[in-house]
From TrEMBL:
Biological process (GO), any one: cellular detoxification of fluoride
Identification of the protein by name: Fluoride-specific ion channel FluC
InterPro entries: FluC
Subcellular location: Cell membrane
Cited function: Fluoride-specific ion channel. Important for reducing fluoride concentration in the cell, thus reducing its toxicity.
Segments crossing the lipid bilayer: 94-111, 131-149, 161-179, 191-211
Length: 217
């Protein structure tokens, strides 16, 4: 494809046709970064979409392949019965990006909790600062997950924002510790804190996924 705008135009047309999956990718970051669109659906729908695809991107190369997908059990998957996702590259740059993002994310959560403690005398009973951090983090992890994994994939952005910043801004260990400590002070409020955190976190993630997919389409 010639540009990201061309990819966007093709993806919108594919979604309007009801294509199940249309995702844009950028090529290797070293050298010239090629941009291409992968369209996945049943063969008849793909064949009917090809003329419009050629009209929208007349200069783009088009390659069509047919594959049979098989459902595999989790045990078969772990034994290599399906293609495994490509792991993150563990190099110095990625480690540095996670470290830098984690420093900003952790600092943000510390400031948020400090402010919550300042305005709430009985913060230990219902630590809403952690709740806000986890709910907000769940929403933005879902948003970035859609943007990065279903659109233009960038390993650098994934490392910094998802694994680094949001991974440090949110916290599961502190959440569990606060439930245990709050139970000793007020079982009712501790149960309310645990339930509301789980419900709001899941709701925020679902909202982030649905809203982002609706926006990008």
């Amino acid at each position: 494809m010639g540009s990201e705008a061309d990819c966007e135009r093709v993806i919108r047309a594919a979604h309007e046709r009801g294509v199940a999956s249309a995702m844009a990718y950028s090529g290797p970051e070293d050298g010239v970064a090629a941009i291409f669109v992968m369209i996945i659906d049943e063969p008849p729908l793909i064949e009917s979409f090809l003329p419009e695809l050629k009209r929208l991107a007349p200069e783009a190369g088009i390659s069509v392949s047919f594959e049979r997908l098989a459902h595999v059990s989790p045990s078969d998957f772990l034994r290599g019965g399906a293609h495994r996702p490509r792991p993150f590259r563990t190099n110095l740059e990625n480690v540095g990006l996670v470290f830098l993002g984690g420093a900003f994310g952790g600092s943000g959560r510390v400031l948020l909790e400090a402010g919550a403690r300042y305005v709430t005398p009985a913060y230990e009973v219902f630590p809403w600062g952690t709740l806000v951090a986890n709910v907000v983090g769940s929403f933005f992890i879902a948003v970035l997950g859609v943007l990065l994994l279903e659109r233009f994939i960038s390993e650098r952005e994934r490392m910094f924002w998802i694994l680094g910043f949001l991974g440090s801004f949110t916290t599961f260990s502190a959440f569990i510790f606060q439930i245990d400590r709050g139970w000793e002070l007020s079982p009712t409020l501790s149960a309310l804190y645990a339930g509301s955190s789980m419900f709001l976190g899941l709701a925020a993630a679902l909202l982030g996924i649905l809203a982002t997919r609706r926006f990008v389409r």
